[in-house]
Design a protein that fits this description.
Radius of gyration of chain B: 18 Å
Structural class of chain A: alpha+beta
Number of domains of chain A: 2
Shape of chain A: elongated
Distance between the termini of chain B: 31 Å
CATH architecture of chain B: 3-Layer(aba) Sandwich
Number of helices of chain B: 7
Number of helices of chain A: 13
Number of domains of chain B: 1
CATH class of chain B: Alpha Beta
Order of helices and strands of chain B: EEEHEEHEHHHEHEHEE
Helix content of chain A: 55-70%
Largest sheet of chain A: 6 strands, mixed, barrel
Number of strands of chain A: 11
Distance between the termini of chain A: 31 Å
Oligomer: heterodimer
Helix content of chain B: 25-40%
Order of helices and strands of chain A: HHEHEEEHEHEHEEEHEHEHHHHH
CATH topology of chain B: Rossmann fold
Number of strands of chain B: 10
Shape of chain B: globular
Structural class of chain B: alpha/beta
Chain lengths: 411, 235
């Protein structure tokens, strides 16, 4: 009790200085928290983006050979065909469902309204692979695929242009490149095309365009849990495709194999680097605050040299002087640190709400809502305590080392 | 009460300075002695060693029958706190504490409770006629009052020895005489008193005057203050 009275007295003797010192710490923690919250927001936003897509998705793209193989030269482009699709479906382990993707840039009209449109021919599984969110109606299904139906799922952009916002286009016919398609569903826009987007059954578009070579295949996998599983799968797939298309299995540019999981892991790696960076910046800010506290404690101790000398002469032990100075510093850092932390959290919360409002109604809605979790608060607390002790300890140690008689004569 | 045997002390600076050169001294319990000497004679160093504020290089120092040598900092602090009371020329009161809090401070380091501490402090302030000033800060007190507060602080722990370093150095002659009178009374209650001074008039009020010169005791003068007429100017 007496101990705390002494400390409180010491702190309240120079209120302005105590405040300014504390402010540096508050500011450091404030910035650290805001930065971390923003970083967290970005991490969560991107994490979400990945989590509502499926991470068990693979994409293979055609490429060009770069190594001569069995009499073939280089720069031979490797395209996929129906054989590859069947092969993937039946021969390759872990492959679940396959959807090739072909597309055309077309022109859609309805009465006197028209719009450019990007039409993809896909299989039903594509909905899950590419995270297509339906607003009404349905996606193309197996029957459509089998019968090469002229059905189309349009996105909201195209719907707005042709039908207007409040009209349901279901069951209506639109003309694309002089062919009539029956609208069976409306989906969210993914913002890839200004004009709008549409999905038709793969077999339908294949017939229309007479394409038999595809540059991109999408498929889902099952039973691949770890990074190692995925790497092994990618390697074995490349080897098998190499056999099919006669290219060197070591030729990584012949076909490109990408997995969503790989993308996810890569993105996360970048994000973790970002997080580290944020910690470093925040920490650097904090350090300047701590140096401030340490400096002020040094000045305080200098000013109090006389008093420390008197106390020692009257029987104060070094330990008690050390303890009181370190505690003073600790109190400044923790109290002001917590003020900074709370302000930082409030700022993050308010900023988050504002961002959430701004993002509402936008097409690309990456959910960047800053947030702070209890672990960071605990970590920052521990950091503050360590810093407070360090900031006080060195000046205090110097203070108690001085002989009482020298301290008393110090002016 | 105090016994010094061949105390040597050298300050090692750019130029090593041999300050005390084999001091032998004995002060019995209840004695009142003064240490005189020009500046640089080593009297302050001697007082610091006596007060366990500084250590010595060789020799032996017995305080109250105990050898004071190679004490840990904590032991030294404890011994200072319980055995010795200090009175300083510049009073060395803590400016942001009231007279009462200043007096109570040594008891704080004995872990005496606050209530008890303040009671004792008030009692001692009363003895020095300062009860009404208990809640005043040092800068509201006159020099004589400050010195009386610091005397109360020195006595509150009931020490065996009072060490006074130029206790009247900052006071006018009238107040000096008063302070010396109080110190004599304190001494008569049985507390050993050692006063460092360079003022003859002050030294003459003690029973034994130790003359220090260049780190050695030049001579010890036995004195009887009762035979001196202090009504005349003492400075």
């Amino acid at each position: 009790m007496d101990f705390w009275r002494e400390i409180f007295m010491a702190l309240s003797r120079n209120k302005l200085r105590t405040f300014l010192t504390g402010f540096a710490i508050s500011w450091g923690i404030f910035i650290l928290i805001v930065l971390l919250a923003a970083g967290n927001g970005i991490m969560n936003g991107i994490g979400d983006e990945f989590s509502d897509q499926r991470t068990n998705v693979y994409m293979i793209y055609s490429g060009e050979t770069s190594i001569p193989f069995k009499g073939h030269g280089i720069n031979r482009s490797i395209m996929f065909n129906d054989k590859d699709i069947r092969f993937l479906e039946t021969e390759v382990r872990n492959v679940d469902q396959v959807s090739p993707r072909i597309y055309i840039n077309g022109f859609a009209t309805l009465g006197d309204k028209s719009s450019s449109v990007f039409v993809s021919g896909v299989r039903p599984v594509f909905k899950g692979i590419n995270h297509v969110e339906l607003l009404e109606g349905r996606f193309v299904n197996e029957m459509d695929e089998k019968n090469s139906e002229k059905f189309i799922v349009i996105d909201e952009t195209l719907r707005d242009k042709l039908f207007g916002k409040d009209t349901s286009p279901l069951g209506q016919f639109i003309i694309i490149n002089s062919m009539a398609f029956n609208v069976v569903g409306v989906c969210e826009a993914q913002g890839r095309s200004d004009g709008g987007e549409g999905y038709v059954p793969f077999s339908t578009l294949k017939k229309i365009t007479r394409q038999s070579r595809y540059w991109m295949l999408n498929f889902t996998v099952k039973g691949l849990e770890t990074k190692e599983d995925n790497e092994a799968f990618t390697e074995s797939l490349r080897t098998q495709l190499a056999g099919l298309h006669e290219f060197d299995p070591d030729d990584t540019s012949a076909v490109y194999i990408r997995s969503r999981q790989e993308e996810y892991l890569q993105t996360m790696k970048i994000l973790h680097t970002l997080e580290l960076f944020i910690w470093i910046i925040g920490f650097a800010m904090l350090i300047s605050g701590i140096v401030g506290v340490s400096n002020i404690m040094r000045i305080t101790v200098k000013e109090r040299t006389n008093e420390i000398g008197i106390r020692k002469a009257l029987g104060a032990k070094s330990r008690s002087i050390l303890a009181s100075i370190v505690t003073e510093s600790l109190i400044i850092t923790t109290i002001f640190g917590y003020i900074g932390m709370w302000l930082g959290m409030i700022a993050a919360e308010v900023g988050g709400n504002i961002l959430a409002k701004v993002q509402e109604g936008k097409e690309i809605s990456l959910n960047i809502v800053p947030s702070i979790d209890i672990r960071i608060v605990l970590m920052a607390t521990a950091l503050l305590i360590v810093c407070g002790v360090l900031a006080g300890f060195f000046p205090a140690r110097n203070a108690v080392k001085i002989k009482p008689i020298e301290a008393m004569n110090y002016r | 009460m105090i016994r010094l045997e061949k105390i040597n002390k050298t300050y090692f600076g750019a130029q090593p300075l041999h300050v005390l050169k084999g001091i032998d001294l004995e002060v019995a319990e209840g004695e009142m002695v003064s240490i005189m000497g020009a500046s640089g004679s080593g009297k302050s160093t001697l007082l610091n060693i006596l007060g366990i504020l500084d250590n010595y290089d060789t020799g032996e120092y017995y305080l109250n029958g105990k050898l004071v040598k190679n004490l840990s900092e904590n032991e030294a602090a404890d011994m200072r706190n319980r055995t010795i009371g200090f009175i300083f020329q510049s009073f060395n009161l803590i400016p942001f504490k009231t007279a009462m809090e200043n007096v109570a401070l040594p008891l704080y380091y004995q872990n005496v409770g606050r209530k008890k501490r303040n009671e004792l402090a008030l009692e001692y302030l009363e003895r020095f006629g300062l009860k009404e000033w208990a809640d005043h800060y040092p800068n509201e007190l006159s020099g004589g009052q400050k010195q009386r507060v610091s005397m109360a602080r020195a006595l509150v722990t009931q020490p065996k020895v009072i060490l006074a370093d130029e206790p009247t150095g900052a006071l006018d002659s009238k107040t000096s005489a008063e302070v010396m009178q109080i110190l004599r009374e304190v001494n008569q209650s049985g507390i050993t008193m050692i006063i460092v001074t360079h003022e003859k008039g002050i030294a003459l009020r003690t029973n034994k005057i130790i003359h220090l010169k260049d780190g050695v005791i030049e001579n010890i003068e036995i004195n009887n203050p009762d035979l001196i007429d202090f009504s005349k100017e003492i400075k």
